[in-house]
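Severity: low
Component: inverse-folding endpoint
Summary: output formatting inconsistent between runs
Steps to reproduce: submit the following structure tokens with default settings.
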């Protein structure tokens, strides 16, 4: 039994080593890799999206190209400043990277940053005609794991090939706005009973004084300040990782290990989404769905949720999400009292 465990550990370490090694080195030329790994894409221009992006950077940049170059540069600079040791990727790090082998795309999805619509678009792009209009795909179907492949499902050589040769993109959002959006969606909607049972009951049990029996059983009336206490409680992350809906973007997508070619923002969603669709030469009929603005969480709404959070806890929560603010160039919210 002990011998088998040792073998398992060695195999895991070797796999991680190979993943890190192949990500930076390759003894095969791209054409040969495509033949061996069975990947090829054919944009209208005959170039891969990655070539389309960096070839355009050789000429005079448009304002949009300049913006994305600035985002890449800032991300690289912040990573260099705050990341002392570059660790190796593991398969678990790749679960959020959705693969499009048709167009040569890797998309790291971040919940509460238009990820449902991006998954719909990815299903259209990879569906070989099965889907034509993203909005015709029900939201729950977009989240069925078998409908899209993630990078963690591939072999190590296949993973490294895609990391080197595919266009990698991510969409981010103002961290506290995303956090409040997650809270509103998971704890204030009556239909999210799974989250109420899984997380709400625990939050109420630990962070509410003299909770009622009904609240302990249902977990459907978690207050925002209780949610904040739960996030800051050392026991929370000690027991299990954060749920993906409130996990930090840098922990979901590892932007200091994986080089993202396009960093889109929720604040410029339509413009950035169209930019990516242009880079891959997507059919003109494929449009990124417009988001409803009536129910979305805004900065003013986020500020209201923080009114009842003391400066002490505001500062601790900001420190928890600080790297996302730095990496993606978001300013400290004016409503916070950090001094």
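Observed output (run 2 of 3):
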């Amino acid at each position: 039994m002990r011998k088998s465990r040792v073998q398992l550990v060695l195999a895991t370490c070797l796999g991680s080593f190979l993943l890190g090694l192949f990500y930076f080195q390759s003894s095969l030329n791209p054409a040969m890799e495509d033949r061996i790994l069975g990947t090829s894409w054919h944009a209208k221009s005959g170039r891969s999206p990655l070539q389309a992006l960096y070839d355009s950077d050789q000429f005079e940049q448009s304002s949009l190209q300049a913006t994305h170059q600035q985002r890449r540069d800032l991300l690289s600079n912040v990573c260099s400043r705050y990341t002392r040791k570059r660790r190796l990727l593991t398969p678990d790090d790749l679960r959020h990277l959705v693969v499009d082998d048709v167009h040569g795309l890797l998309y790291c999805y971040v919940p509460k940053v238009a990820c449902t619509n991006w998954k719909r678009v990815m299903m259209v792009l990879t569906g070989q005609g099965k889907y034509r209009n993203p909005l015709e795909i029900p939201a729950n179907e977009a989240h069925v794991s078998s409908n899209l492949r993630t990078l963690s499902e591939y072999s190590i050589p296949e993973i490294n090939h895609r990391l080197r040769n595919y266009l990698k993109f991510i969409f981010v959002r103002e961290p506290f706005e995303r956090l409040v959006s997650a809270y509103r969606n998971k704890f204030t909607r009556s239909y999210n009973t799974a989250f109420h049972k899984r997380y709400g009951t625990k939050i109420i049990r630990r962070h509410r004084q003299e909770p009622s029996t009904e609240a302990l059983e249902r977990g459907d009336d978690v207050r925002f300040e209780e949610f904040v206490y739960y996030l800051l409680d050392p026991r929370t992350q000690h027991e299990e990782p954060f749920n993906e809906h409130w996990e930090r973007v840098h922990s979901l997508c590892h932007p200091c290990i994986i080089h993202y070619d396009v960093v889109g923002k929720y604040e410029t969603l339509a413009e950035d989404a169209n930019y990516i669709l242009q880079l891959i030469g997507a059919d003109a009929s494929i449009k990124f769905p417009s988001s409803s603005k009536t129910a979305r969480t805004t900065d003013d709404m986020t500020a209201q949720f923080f009114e009842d959070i003391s400066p002490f806890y505001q500062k601790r929560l900001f420190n928890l999400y600080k790297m996302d603010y730095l990496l993606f160039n978001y300013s400290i919210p004016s409503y916070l009292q950090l001094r």
